[in-house]
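Posting this for the archive.
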Amino acid sequence: MRLKTSVVLRLYSLCGILIQGSQGQFPLTQNVTVIEGETATLTCRVDQNDNTSLQWSNPAQQTLYFDDKKALRDNRIELLRASWHELTIRVTDVSLSDEGQYTCSLFTMPVKTSKAFLTVLGVPESPQITGFVSPVMEGDRMELTCKTSGSKPAADIRWFKNDKEVKDVKYLKEEDANRKTFTVSSTMNFKADRSDDGAVVSCRVDHESLHSSPQIAMQVLEIHYIPSVKIIPSTLWPEEGQSITLICESKGKPLPDPVLWTKDGGELPDPERMIVNGRELNIHMLNKTDNGTYRCEAENSIGLNSAEYVLIIRDVSNILLPTTVIPSLTTATVTTTVALTSTVPSATAIDTRDPNGYPGPTGTDHAVIGGIVAVVVFVTLCSIILLGRYLARHKGTYLTNEAKGAEDAPDADTAIINAEGSQVNAEEKKEYFI
């Protein structure tokens, strides 16, 4: 009896489907995209439905739900809503095997269907960087590879060095064994340089399943290189009596050992005045013997490098050459020649100023005053000499005039008596020489 009743009800239902088929009912669905491991919701709606059954089936054409009745034993599949106008089911913990075309059927006559494609995204695994070694010698080539598996569709890999993207890379995509996901890798090749020391190299994986939060793998580069050496003087114009400090600036990795200072290829000749303090060479009370080539050497485990500095002390003294005097009765001419010598203070600095002249207008004033004093002294000497000669000549002439009249005297007594300058006339004519 129960069997006959069931058959009658089934026939009645089929008749109802045939009657309602003419009413133009049609199910509506939407495609769904979900990340592997998450939950997918499939909804089928009918705007006009006169108690016609709805059914969801999977890509293998297995019925999942017929109205509110569960047909497939899968605990991940649940019913959310069931009515004459809607049939909504939920699939939890979605796997890649769940991907495919799902069908919603409306049992009119004929049966009307609507398709909904379920896309499952494969999440890429955390990337790994291979080929990294530390430290790296400057000049060596580095080849770094970044790889990630399990992405669907294939993930995108980008390289960065200190947040600056590196474009010259190689990209490779391979299909995994399940023929659904991909393994992708990217290789970056570059030559190690000291400027890369401490740089952060990162591999970034972008994928739509990551919700704009890329996966990143990072490595910090360590580059070893030979020291670079430079000597910096505390003054460019060292003078006698002053002090100078030569700073040996050395950079290298590993850090260079304490520097070595030499002069003209040998040891420092005067340790009491030439004091080494770390990377500095201090020379006190400079003199001409300190002129020469100073060398600074820095060494680490990679190699040795050096720099040189030529020290030349400035001579601040002026040299006056002998003067030439041309006397005359009334004037004297003095010619003064001053020799100026130029010196170059170092091998790295050149100045067009006179290195022996006093700085500023003071040096010029001293030279002018010295020339004036010299002229006055020689003019005075010249005047004294000329005056002496003149007086000496005048006195001789005076004495000779006193003997006039004695040229024809027969004897000396007569000559004395006849002379104009005899004692007879002494009282009448007296002259004094002062």
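The CA atoms of residues 123 and 151 lie 5 Å apart. The helical segments are 2-20, 361-402, 412-418.
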